[in-house]
Amino acid sequence: MAFPALAIYSFLYLYPALTNLLYATQRWDGVTTPEFVGLKNFINLLTNDDLFLKILGNNVRFSLLVVVAQTGFALLFATFLLKNTKTNIFLRTVYFFPTILSSVSVGLIWTFLYDPNYGFINASLKAIGLDSLALNWLGDSRYSLYAVAVTQVWFHTGQMIVIYVAGLQQIPAELYEAAEVDGASRWQQFKSVTWPMALPTTAVVVAYTTIQTFRAFDLIYAMTQGGPLNSSDLLVTMVFNTAFVGYKFGYAATQTIFLVLLVLLVTWLQRRVLRLNDGIKK
């Protein structure tokens, strides 16, 4: 019974991974005969590719912005929506709603909102006399990455709220009762009870959110296609452009390996944080 599952796994995952590793050692445009180049693609990626370093910086900034904002908002809203009242359940549903939309739909909606001439954001700013803040959000290289980051936060915060609510509801009520007896304020209760007990959930949220930022291909492509001037390009869009625009499939395979290693590193760090937290509790 295990053989069919192993065969399917090998065909869907193992074979493509090994093939990608082989392509990474070749120079290939998808048409001509592949040329073996050894580790030249890896060396070039890490030492001679200025565009790669720029896009890596974009991804780091994008990830930091989204992780900090999304985790902070999710924890804040989850704290207020913790009790299972009808109002809170309704609000959780409202906040979760964007998550069920497709990335392309979300990208198109926010592209319209960001439109410099007819978009709701600039129209609202002009209506209250803040014309100087009505910017070309997606067309200006100074703001495009941040505009997409705001969209990403709006898109996925609802999902993180649900995760936080599930985690916070596991905290024993006796801890809060003891804190109240000691005269702790709401902020002191959050600092001494909620936050320490929510660390395992926070580790999951941070890791999952970080991985999402490395997979935001469809959102980026729907809104900016990585432009202008690669200002909103991420590693995942760089791989696509290298392979299907530049026809450098071998080099794109090398970039893919680097991207996978980054995601694995994030996953490893998340597991380490969880183990350290368990060790502290014990």
Q: Would you kindly provide a written description of the structure presented here, covering whatever features stand out?
A:
With 282 residues, the chain is mostly helical. It is 72% helix and 1% strand. The chain has a single domain (36-281), classed as MetI-like fold. Strands 1-2 form a two-stranded antiparallel sheet. 26% of the residues are buried. The mean pLDDT is 89.
Gist of the model:
With 282 residues, the protein is mainly α. The protein has 13 helices and 2 strands.
Radius of gyration: 23 Å
Share of helical residues: over 70%
First-last Cα distance: 41 Å
CATH domain topology: MetI-like fold
Tell me the strand order in the biggest sheet.
Answer: 1-2
Query: Which structural class do you get from the secondary structure elements?
Result: mainly alpha
Q: What's the number of domains?
A: 1
Summarize the helix and strand pattern as letters.
Answer: HEEHHHHHHHHHHHH
Tell me the fraction of residues in β-strands, as a range: under 5%
CATH superfamily: MetI-like
- The CATH architecture name reads Orthogonal Bundle
What is the CATH C level class, in words? Mainly Alpha
Question: Which term fits the overall shape?
Answer: globular
Q: Total strand count, please?
A: 2
List keywords for this structure.
MetI-like fold; mainly alpha; 282 residues; two-stranded antiparallel sheet; 72% helix; single chain; 13 helices
Helices, strands, pairings?
Blueprint: H1 2-23, E1 26-27, E2 35-36, H2 40-47, H3 50-80, H4 86-96, H5 103-113, H6 120-127, H7 144-168, H8 173-181, H9 186-197, H10 199-213, H11 217-223, H12 235-244, H13 249-281
Antiparallel strand pairs: 1-2
